[in-house]
Amino acid sequence: MNSEVETTNPQNEDSDVASDLREKGKSAVNENTFTDVLREATADVLKKKIQEIKEDVLGHVNGRINDMMLEIQKKIEVPIAKNGEFLYSSNKYRDKRESTKSDTLGDKEFLERNSLFTDLFSISHIRTVYNLFMVIFIILLSNTVASDITESGTIRVGTDTILMCFEKFPTCMYIWSLMQTSTLGVYVGFILWAYQRLRFLPKSFIRKFWDYGWVSAFISYQILFFIVPTKAVIETKLAIACRLIVLLEQIRMIMKSHAFVRSAASRFLSYKPHSETPQPSGPKFSQFLYFLFAPTLVYRDEYPRTKKIRWMVVIQNFIEFGVTIFCFAFIMDHLILPVYNVFGTQPLERKWLVKNMIDSSIPALFFLLTAHYLLLHAWMNAWAEMLRFADRLFYKDWWNSTTYHAYYRTWNVVVHDWLYTYIYKDMYEIVVPRNRVLAATAVFLTSAIVHEYILSFAFGFFYPVMFVLFGGIGFALFFVRKFVTSNIFIWLSWSLGNGIMFCLYSIESYARINCPPHSNYYLDLFIPRSWSCQEKFNV
C-alpha cells in the first residue's frame, strides 16, 4: 500500500508544478502587458506636458520679443530729452482711462507729467523757436521805445495801454473776492444736504423734497452768479482787461462748483442704506479749497502731487506772464489801434476793410499764440508749481493738428476735460444714450454761447462774430475730418479767422466811440453800430 502511494505522488506533484508554472507565465505576461501599457501612458503624458511647456516658453518668448520690438520702435520714432527720457508716449500723455463697460465712456485720468512745452524746450532745436519769440519781443520793445522817443520824447513801452486796460483794478479784485467768498458757500450747502439726507428713509417724500429743494437752490445760485457779477461789471464801468478777469473767473468758478457738486453728490445718491457698501463720507473742506485753486476743472478728492515747490520755476513763469502782457500791449499799440482808430472819422472804401482784414491775420495769429502761452503755460504752470499739482497736461500738440476734430481736443485740455466729463459724457450716458452727434452738439453749443457771452460783456456790445465762426463754421469742420486733413489749411484758417475777428471787433469798438448810437436803445445793444456808421459820409 505504501509503495503504491509513493509511486502516485510524484505525478501529482509534477502536474501541480506545471500548473504553477503556467499560472506564473500568465501572470508574467499580464504583468509585462500592464507595464507596457503604463509605460506608453506615461510617455503620452510626458509628451503632452513637454508640448505644453514648449508652447508656454515659446509664447513667453514671443511676447517678450514683441514688447522689446515695440520699445525699440518707440525709441526710434520718439524724440529723446537730454536726460534720456521720452518726450512723447501714449502712456505719458494719455488723459482718459478706458472704461470696462461697453455703454460708458472713460474717465479723466490724472498722472504726474510736465507740460508739453516744458519737455520740448529741453531740445535745442525746439528751444530755438522760443528764442525766436524772444527776439520778436525785443524787436517790438525796441520799436516801441523808438516810437515813444520820436513822438513824445518819453519812454512808455506800452504802459499807457496796460494802465488803460487795467483801470479800476482794485474794484475788479473787490468783485473777485466777493465771488470767491460766495463760492465757498457751495461747500457748506453741499455738506448740509448730504449728511442730512442720510437720515431720511430711502423712498420717503421728505427725502425727495429735500433733494429737489437743494437742486433748485443750487440752480438759483448759479443763475444769480451769472447775473450779479455781470451787473457789477457794467455798473462800475471796468476797463476791458478787468472785465475779462471778472468774466473769466466767473465762468471758472461756475464750472468748479458744478464739477464739485456733480462728482461728490453721486456717491451719496448711489448709496443704499441696507447694502454692504459703507456709508459715504463727504469731501473735506481742505480738499474743496485746494480744488478751487488747482489748475483743473475736474474734481477729485486727491490729485498726484510733486514732492516740493521749485520757487525759481514759479518766478520764471510769472516773469514770462508779465512779458506776454507787454507783448499784447505792443501788438495793440503798433499793429491794431493805429489802423482802426480812423473808423467813423472819415469815409472808407470796402477795399480798406478787405485789406486790413487780411493784414490783421498776422498780428491776430501772433496774439493767439501769445494768449495760449500766457494762460495755458505760464499762468497754469506757476499755480501748479505753487500747489505742487503734478499733472500739467494743460494742452497737447495742437499745432500739429490736421483736422478741427483734433484741434478742439488738444488746444485747451483743461476746458476740454470739463466739457467731456460733465456735458459730453453725461449726455452720451444719461440724457441721449449712445448718441455722439447730439452729445457733441451740446458741447459746441455750450462752448459757443459762453465764448460769445464773455466777449459781449467784455467789449460792451453784441456782435456774434465768434459765435458764427466757432459755433457755425468750426462746428461744421469738426464733422468733415475725413475730407479736410491738412495742417496748412488749419493754420491758414486760424490766421484768417482770427484776422476777421480782430478786424470786425476793432471796427465796432471804434464805431461805439466815433459814431452816433441808434435811436432805439435796445436796437443799439444788438445791432452793430459799424453797419450804419459810414452812411453819414455818403449823405
Radius of gyration: 38 Å
First and last CA, distance: 170 Å
Question: How many β-strand runs?
Answer: 2
Q: Strand fraction band?
A: under 5%
Look at the helices and sheets and give the structural class.
Answer: mainly alpha
- List the uncertain runs: 1-11, 72-90
Q: Report helical residue fraction.
A: over 70%
The largest sheet, given as strand count, sense and whether it forms a barrel, is: 2 strands, antiparallel
With helices defined by DSSP (H or I, 4 residues minimum), what is the helix count?
19
- Estimate the global geometry from the Cα principal axes: globular
> What is the helix/strand order?
HEEHHHHHHHHHHHHHHHHHH
Q: How are the strands of the largest sheet arranged? A: 1-2
On the 0-100 scale, what is the average pLDDT?
A: 81
